[in-house]
Amino acid sequence: MLMITKEAQDKIIKVLSTESPGSRLRMFVSGKGCAGLSYGFAVDDEVAEDDIQVPAGETTVLVDAISLPYLQGSIVDFKEDLTGSRFVIDNPNAKSSCGCGDSFQPKDQ
Fold this sequence. Notes:
There is one protein chain. This protein has a single domain (3-106), classed as Sandwich (Hypothetical Protein Aq_1857, Chain: A), CATH 2.60.300. 14% of the residues lie in helices and 49% in strands. The chain contains 2 helices and 9 strands.
């Protein structure tokens, strides 16, 4: 399905510790990236009927049913380096991605 590394799990827990109880990280794709689709993250208090709950250590990450096919098999990591800190997605469904890694072109396009 989707793998969340230990580093990403730790960051998710840290982010959620400042949010209301029961909040979860939502991961999604939208059609506004420079390479086609872009990755998005948000904190959400509600689980939608079509959400898939991906295990992430002490919590779960929410992915909607429309985004899941684009993220299937991806590895989500968290990196901190000279360019900043960010979630990094290694996506086997991406034909290409932009230089910063925030957006991608799916293989089926």
